[in-house]
Amino acid sequence: MTSPPARRRRAGAPERSYPRRGSVRRAQMITTYGVGSMVAVDNESFIVTGIDSWNISEAPTIHEHRLARVLGVKSFRLPPASDDTSKDGVHVRRFPLWHSCPSCNALQHVRQFNSPPGKNECGDCDEELVPSRFVMACAKGHIADFPYWKWAHRKNRQEGDSGFCHGEMRLRTSGKTASLRSILISCTCGIPEVSMEGAFRRSALSDLKVFCSGLRPWLKDAPTESCSESPRTLQRGSSVAWQPIVKTALSIPPWSDGDISRLEPHWDALRELNADGIEIYLKALTLQENYEFSAERVIALLDAENHEDAGPDQEEGHDHAYVTLRKQEYERLIAGRPESETDHEDQFVCEPPRSSASALAPYGVAGPMLVKRLREVRALKAFSRVETPETRTDVHEAALSLAPMDWLPAMEVQGEGVFLRLDEQRLDSWAESVAVAARVERIRNNHLLMLRERAQDPQSVPDSPASARMVLLHTLAHALINEWSLDGGYPAASLRERLYADDSMAGMLICTATSDSAGSLGGLVAQGEPDRLEPALHSALVRAQWCSADPLCVESQGSGVGGINLAACHACVLLPETSCEHNNGLLDRALLIGTPEDPTIGFFSEALLL
Questions:
Q1: 2-33 burial by CB neighbour count: b if 16+ within 10 A, else e?
Q2: For the chain, what is the total number of helices (H) and then of strands (E)?
Q3: Could you tell me the pTM of the whole model?
């Protein structure tokens, strides 16, 4: 560790590196503390600056060809790390700028406290300053300090009064309760003391004629944008103050060969050459490094790329490119790739189990595959505020840099997994049941209602992904993860689902989700062997038949956020949010095992009777 650098006085917000080395892990820069998020370190608060200010000279490059093409970048970079021999690559700026002193209760801009150099203290009391607990932000990602003066003077302002009273603001807590009513703001100009109660109402700031400032403090020298969104009051540590928009992809053949990444920097040049030109280019590369690529292999890769571009018609909608990625993965997981055909650098090994899968036939499970080697790349594309991708599909994506960059921050997870498919004919006949369709329609309607309530334009809300096939696969994945966390030794948070559910796909991949020690225990592939999978599947279904919250859980007409779950709660099938692709929504265990009144709606109800 090194001591924090002295703070320099300047006109704008001071920019600095993290004051404590190692306080934020690289993976957290993608999922928790990415660009635009606020980081609390001791008694100080900072906002992470854009990637155009990062020093990535020592940051490793991550290649994932398919995902990079979809996101329009050339490569990905692992967020830079700091040690005693390197320079900090990720910079932060102090935010919010309004602070308070716990001793004299002064509430003002941090520059007005006359702090000693290199310290964040009150110049009069020598007490450490406390960053503002509240900020204001809008759905387009803009964020600014909370307008304390306007809030405190809202009942005493005259029409057209836009100046300040030149009084000194004070903030204190009464200590009577932990609610906003106990947070009191006053001013030496003599106004009555007011509380923060009501500041979180949707129209609280609009009623004060406070408009979005259009500020983007995470981007250096960013101009103020014109914004018509109504700002909202948020707590600095609120989950909706920063939500990452992360896109993921698996490394699959032909792009999963470990040595193909060496060709990525030259790919644009190779794409423009013919066969003879490619051969000459590769010969020139051999003079610099020991390249073992033949021209035939490069041409085959280019053909595969062109085939992906000219593949089946992509689905309509803003996520059609990501659906195409999933379909490519689904086809490759079905086809597999035996370990005998790979080398130690290959990042994808998938093969059928050694024993017969006939024991799984009564459950409608077809073609289990053991993914013995797997690599997943997770890239931070953008972020959102106020509205989350789970509650709105048209959420605004705030940029990570002022100018477009040819790279994005990303991380990679290497592990193992088990891929399962369900019999599609049996699925289709089961989904035609009136009772099944009625339950799914209830989930679908609740989800659409929630999307319309939170959308800017209720008429342009995309269709809900809820279908009988999707809800069944999703709930089954949760039940198996819970079962394997008990039987296989993995904590549930270290496993992750990856769903393949639409009219042409009916599968799921359960894989290791973390790159730390909890995600590298080994043995997950062994759970996919039929002699182990069948009793685990049976146990998971039996466990789903009863919940400690029954009969309330199984008789629920809508649970979870927006009522988009039916029979699903924390006592039965919900998982840690890091393990779920849909934020613990669109779940119903009744579709697995039925209800006491109608067991036949369960897809596996007949298998449980055997």
A1: eebeebeeeeebbebbbbeeeebebbebbeeb
A2: 14, 21
A3: 0.85
